[in-house]
Amino acid sequence: MSEHNHVVSKDGDVTVSRVNDALERIDPKQREQILSNFTEFKEYLRKRVQLAQKIGLSEEQLAVVAEKIADYLAAYEEPRGSEEKLLLELWKVGNKEERHRLAHMLVKLVLN
User: Fold this and answer.
1) Is the pTM above the cut of 0.85?
2) 107 is in which domain, residue-wise?
């Protein structure tokens, strides 16, 4: 797959507008496995966040991408457990600034 399909380029530039396309390319069976429980979801995100850190993404860049992913999940995926339901409710009631802070907190959560 060429670099123009990726959210993060080789030089570390982030194209947030490609997040939805990247998420939609995940095989439905793999998506279901990732979203099947909160522990699996956090582990999947942890690996992706660590990879992003290795190529030099800042905490702010990670939070921006996490925010976009959360927007996608809130719009297209049904929460499967109580943790996901809580996150969705927090996402719905939060304003833009609060959602951005929550995205920062989610990045921290998966790294701890």
Assistant:
1) no
2) 3-111
